[in-house]
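quick one, 168 residues, struct below
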Amino acid sequence: MLIQPLYRHSRHMLGALILAAAAMSANADQFEDTERNKAIVQQAFNAWENGGSVFSNLLAENIRWTIHGSGPVAGTYVGIDSFVEDASRPLISRLSTPLVPEVHAIWAVDDTVIIRFDGSATTTSGAAYANQFVWIFRMQDGLVTEAEAFLDLAAYHRVIANNAPREE
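---
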């Protein structure tokens, strides 16, 4: 009679152990994805700090990039071309030096990577441009599929309004 309750108890314990092992395996996979996403973004920012493009091999073709705030550039851009042409190029074309990031922190949780950085450059009129940024990336298969950007849009707009674009 004692064997039956022990058997039932061991069966429940075995089931609980199997569930716990499965959860640990899923957590390990999730941790690996999180760390991989963080490393991909860190490498992209390292390349940018060294004169490369932060966007090379980082953005999905159909990215949804939202710039929060108010003003002409605020809004959601769908696709790399839309984002680059309508949001990035108006600023970058008015800088005589590359925008150089100074990364303060990169955090990653699951498929989300958050980057806090400052950026500085010289405008085409010779004035200094400096801004603070927080970008929130949603990653899938090693690419950014959704991005949210927080920055001082008044500083961005001053550069657009007071500087002529470079001739390309």
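Residues 67 and 74 are 5 Å apart (CA to CA).
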